[in-house]
Amino acid sequence: MRILFTGGSGKAGRHAVAHLLQKGHRVLNVDLQPLTLEGVDNRIADITDAGQMFDVMSSYAGFDELEPGTGVPRFDAVVHFAAVPRILLKSDNECFRINTIGTYNVIDAALKFGVRKIIFASSETTYGVCFADGLRKPDYLPLDEKHPTVPEDSYAMSKVVNEATAQCFQRRSGADIYGLRINNVMEPDDYARLFPGFMKDPSVRRRNFFAYIDARDLGHLVDRCLHVNGLGFEIFNAANDTHSVDRTTAQLVDEYYSDVPMTREMDRYETFYTNIKAKALLGFDPQHDWRTILGKNL
Questions:
Q1: In angstroms, rounded to a whole number, what is the distance separating the alpha carbons of residues 113 and 107?
Q2: What is 2-294's CATH topology?
Q3: Tell me: the pLDDT tens digits for 65-88?
């Protein structure tokens, strides 16, 4: 597939792009900074500028595409990850502006150029726990996509708006538009660097529901979204199968969630941020568990 990928130079994006390249896709990365990765094409552009998004959406990906003499090829899919990635990086209103206007521009341009598959990055923060002022707990566990999205910060607000924007575009266009509520992304080097600290103080993982998503498994999830058609508008939690600390799920419930209703029995190390929907509808099959990577006796 010929894919336009926004934000491919970021922490999550660069691993997703690498995975898509390995699967044989052609990727044009649209970002403010280029991605230095063999096989990827780059275009420097600002997602908040509608004109620039229309330009890249109707652009050659590289010089080789000039050779056939048949005009600019159409993109088969758009993956939209570009965003201000969290609070406390820019002013709150600027974070909200960039993320919401950027998403509108990307989806609008994609649909007007005939793209029928769009995947966009939403966030775990939409559930209102991650950047809450003080202690906030889920309404129930395990946390699925039906849980209310009631954030109070500009970043998470922008992601909720983006989901509504995407749903409205899908209703009019009939295209497939899938949103990924991405949990805390872990790169391969993060396991040795960060996880020993999680073992010493599991409470530092509370705002992330003690969950994580391996960046390589996120790439796999994006690829599954590309291959599964006909779902219309859908939102998926993106997380690995197990949680990120050396406690059982039952121990974490006793210590942190004893007053939170449980909707079902959970497995010994099962993540609270359930990925069951992605598994059922997309065939998501995460492969990178920190216990295997670091050893169970950490």
A1: 10
A2: Rossmann fold (3.40.50)
A3: 999 999 999 999 999 999 999 999
